[in-house]
Design a protein that fits this description.
Chain A has 14 helices and 1 strand; from the N terminus they run αααααααααααααβα. With 421 residues, chain A is mainly alpha-helical. The chains are: A mainly alpha (421), B mainly alpha (226). β1 of chain A pairs antiparallel with β1 of chain B, so a sheet runs across the interface.
């Protein structure tokens, strides 16, 4: 108890710094995964992608990041176990943050695809199970989270398969794909706008003091979605179509329409990524702040301090602004056969899956959900070649990240305990 | 850094290179009329230049073929079967090889096409090149096929092209029979060795359409699987 009273402010500052560092790392690295498909299919330039990512990552983090933050903060660990020793929880959360951020840094330098979500969950479970006691972990919740890592790529793959096939039926396999594209693409925009705003309105706005009922939520979401579709339609009408090309390579014009749609899904993806991944940085921070703020009492139900979500949002944006450019530039080259009509299906499916998971508070991996969606489009015979060895790498890195995150966090935890006691 | 991202998942598409390859192959074939025109007036230096052009395109096609093979390792998840794709590539390449062989054999022997055969010979060559062009048209639909997920109208369109290709090949068979009988009628007046080679050249030119047809059937198999 004394430790928290004497070192309280310093611990909060340390947690804030490490949390910001983690958010920064998420912005610098992970965002490439969220925006890469849009840049790769040449629907967006790098500059546009960075701008969209900045706005929508922040919006997602701030507006819809609360639920997952709560899960990371208090869903994984049994708080009652720490009532007598709240300082251990504070040390543990800081260690977990530090471990996840370090692992993220190492993996980025070595070029390994890691999931920030997996590293933070692994780290929290690690310090609690080994550093404190296996009973301190809510194993049933952890199992649920790990289960969601398998289920969500599957779900997003199935959604992507359905979306892609619907686009084939409605647009590509028709007499006049271009007219059909102009007619149906706004509907996909509506869908993207609807899912995103619905989850945000019903789940995300609570912490802003807005309590909107489900019925009203549907209404508002529909209004936002109609607006999105309308604006999208305006932009589609403004495209200059190459009439000569229309006869020979008609699909090139159709793809132009999909490129507009892809801007919408890119926004959705950035929003989804922000809403789910910001928690990896600020969940532990929120826990530390709440414990120290309550003088060591672990409050069962307390709001997240007002400055925490924006801090995470700014961290992500800062990482983006400084390094996102370089990261996206490296990956944006050499992708020729990812056309907007495939990218959109994958992104829309992944964004919907991630946002819905965020709404239910499940911390999932954005990258793996997107990989699941890409495989879904591949199953529908939509992508020229998918590198299964890279897919395997991503899956392997997911498995490796858990024990490494846990191990690092245990080491840091023992170090902190030794220093402060 | 590239591996640390979702885009590493997308491997290089073999479809554009495959289309580029068949374009090189048709370029090879399209030199043949100019080559035979030069041969008809016994302008061997021009013929030699055209032949070296053919041989250059053939080498380019070979290099591209090798590159495509190297960039198509196992472990890729593709909408079409990898073995089918590689087999298609091999068939495409054989057309270019055949065009090079024809030019080489004619130039090597300074073989002259008899005056009376010229007219039907020229149309015969042109028709065989038509077959190669048709095959190329069908292959060039591959990117549109990808757009439509290898089904629906686009498949019907390609199947129609393959049928047209078959019809052209039938045509060349008929022309070949006619050309051979014309040669038979005059063969007693010619050098016997030249006659042997003339028969061989006629057969080889006919092979262009045969090979093009085989490209079409490989494409059909490619579409039929899965």
């Amino acid at each position: 108890m004394d430790i928290l009273l004497t070192h309280g402010p310093m611990l909060v500052i340390i947690a804030g710094l490490v949390g910001f560092f983690m958010a920064w790392g998420i912005g610098a690295n992970d965002v490439a995964n969220a925006m890469g498909t849009s840049v790769g299919s040449k629907a967006l330039t790098i500059k546009q992608a960075i701008l969209i990512a900045m706005v929508f990552e922040f919006a997602g983090a701030y507006l819809a990041g609360g639920e997952v933050t709560s899960t990371i903060r208090k869903g994984i660990i049994d708080a009652s176990y720490f009532i007598d020793t709240p300082e251990l929880l504070v040390f543990g959360m800081i260690s977990a943050l530090f471990a996840a951020a370090t692992w993220l840094l190492i993996a980025s330098i070595l070029g390994w695809p890691v999931s920030t979500t997996h590293s933070i969950v692994g780290a929290i479970v690690g310090f609690a199970a080994v550093g404190v006691s296996p009973d301190a972990v809510e194993w049933s919740k952890v199992l649920g989270i790990v289960g969601s890592w398998i289920v969500t790529p599957l779900i997003s793959g199935i959604i992507a398969f359905i979306i892609f096939n619907s686009a084939q039926k409605l647009i590509f396999d028709t007499d006049n794909p271009l007219t059909q594209a102009k007619r149906y693409v706004p509907i996909y925009m509506f869908l993207a706008g609807f899912v995103l705003s619905l989850v945000t309105i019903t789940k995300g706005l609570k912490h802003l003091g807005l309590n909107i009922g489900t019925g009203e939520g549907f209404l508002y979401a529909a209004i936002v979605a109609v607006l999105v579709a309308f604006v999208g339609k305006l932009f589609i009408n403004r495209i200059q179509f190459d009439e000569n090309a229309a006869k020979k390579i008609h699909y090139a014009n159709v793809e132009k329409v999909f490129a507009i749609l892809m801007i919408v899904t890119a926004c959705a993806m950035a929003f989804a990524h922000g809403s789910n991944d910001v928690a990896n940085a600020i969940g532990p921070l929120a826990a530390v702040v709440s414990i120290v703020g309550n003088d060591g009492e672990i409050a069962a139900k307390s709001a997240i301090a007002w400055w925490i979500l924006p801090l995470g949002g700014f961290g992500i944006v800062a990482g983006l602004a400084l390094f996102g450019h370089k990261v996206i530039a490296t990956i944006g080259n050499g992708i020729t056969h990812l056309t907007p009509s495939r990218g959109f299906a994958a992104e829309l499916a992944a964004a919907c899956t991630v946002v819905i998971a965020s709404g239910t508070g499940l911390p999932i991996s954005t990258t793996q959900t997107l990989v699941g969606a890409v495989l879904g489009v591949g199953m529908a015979r939509g992508i020229a070649a998918i590198n299964l060895s890279v897919v395997r790498n991503i899956v392997v890195s997911w498995v490796i990240t858990l024990p490494v995150g846990a191990g690092l966090s245990i080491v840091f935890f023992w170090g902190m305990v030794a220093i402060f006691t | 850094m590239a591996r640390n991202s979702i885009l590493g998942v997308f491997a290089k598409s073999p479809i554009k290179p495959l289309e580029k390859h068949i374009r090189l192959v048709t370029k090879c074939c399209n030199q043949l009329p100019a080559f035979f025109a030069a041969c008809a007036v016994q302008d061997w230096s021009t013929a030699g230049k055209v032949r070296s052009k053919i041989s250059k395109y053939e080498r380019d096609a070979d290099a591209l073929k090798r590159q495509i093979r190297l960039e198509l390792p196992g472990g890729l998840f593709m909408p079409v079967d990898r073995a089918d794709l590689l087999e298609l590539l091999t068939q495409q390449d054989k057309i270019a090889n055949k065009a090079k062989d024809i030019a080489g054999r004619i130039l090597g022997r300074k073989l002259v096409i008899p005056e009376t055969l010229q007219a039907s010979f020229v149309t015969y060559v042109a028709r065989n090149i038509d077959a190669a062009e048709k095959a190329a048209d069908a292959i060039n639909e591959l990117d549109d096929l990808l757009e439509t997920g290898f089904r629906g109208r686009e498949v019907a369109l390609v199947e129609k092209m393959i049928n047209q290709l078959d019809a052209i090949e039938d045509d060349t068979d008929g022309m070949q029979i006619k050309l051979r009988s014309e040669l038979l009628a005059i063969e007693n007046d010619l050098n016997p060795v030249d006659v042997m080679f003339l028969y061989q050249i006629i057969e080889w030119i006919g092979d262009l359409a045969d090979l093009a047809e085989r490209v079409g059937s490989r494409l059909e198999i490619l579409l039929a699987r899965k």
